[in-house]
Amino acid sequence: EVLQNHVLEAQVFHTEFGTGVAILTGAFRFSLATNIDDLKLRRLPEVPGLQQPPGCWAVLSQDRVTVVLLAVGPELFLLDNTSCSSVVRECRSVFPDPLSLPQEKFCEFNSTIRSPPKQMVWLMGECHWLCRTLWWPHSAVGGCRGPRLMGECHWLCGTLWWPHSAVGGCRGPRLMEASQEIFRIASMAPGALLLEAQKEYEKESQKADEYLREIREQQLLPEAVGQCIEAAGYEHEPHTQKSLLRAASFGKCFLDKFPPEGFVRMCQDLRVLNAIRDYQIGIPLTFTQYKQLTIEVLLDR
User: Fold this and answer.
1) Tell me, what's the pLDDT at 16?
2) Pairing of strands 119-124, 130-141
3) What totals of helices (H) and strands (E) does the chain contain, helices first?
4) pLDDT per position as a tens digit, 153-189
């Protein structure tokens, strides 16, 4: 079936058995394997009336049970190994089990957006509650580093934020403050001033001294160095990473006792991240994901 109808969509997920993959074929049927190292593709039951890809779907796995939750118009369906069942569209206020579906309404939120969401991700917290983050594409805006796609994103409990795309995690989405502080337009953050000082220094411009003096007069040079190191971890472009690390190294020269361990560790971490993000390996982790995953789990992967 997969060879004849091709793969329309796919999701990779983690289970107790290893790394799993779920696919939606051109026949609008779901199949999944819970361990790609021992590939046994299992076709799930047919969804009644499904004539086009669902609006959104997610794979949920716990205690050796893996199910697919999908939305078809206003209806919500749950697919397991043997059946496809319709789910009542309310949410329970407390989830003792993420796979036990809702009986009571948790909350309602009117986003006032009429178009369907671009993306849905499931977020599981420490108490194993399920939350939903929905993202709508909005518009492209210009910036000092080129155009950036901005979106409007709503979390189930009403938090608003604007990421390029949403990534689910065990502690929910995070805002990368160091990068924003440095790269926002007309930023006067210590890290932004240090980055400009380093660039002017490479041009042999006296402006480098002006920027550096402004930071030192406020006694913010250690903070500026730390901001540049931290921001480098959240950048995916090696060129930007190097610019930030050069700025941090430049600032360290004017500090008597700045501990070098953080700078060295970030250089090592970025070498690993850039290597695994290469298409031949294809594990595009963020810095936060990499730290939470641990190097042992990454090596196992």
Assistant:
1) 79
2) antiparallel
3) 9, 12
4) 444 433 333 333 444 444 444 445 788 889 888 888 9
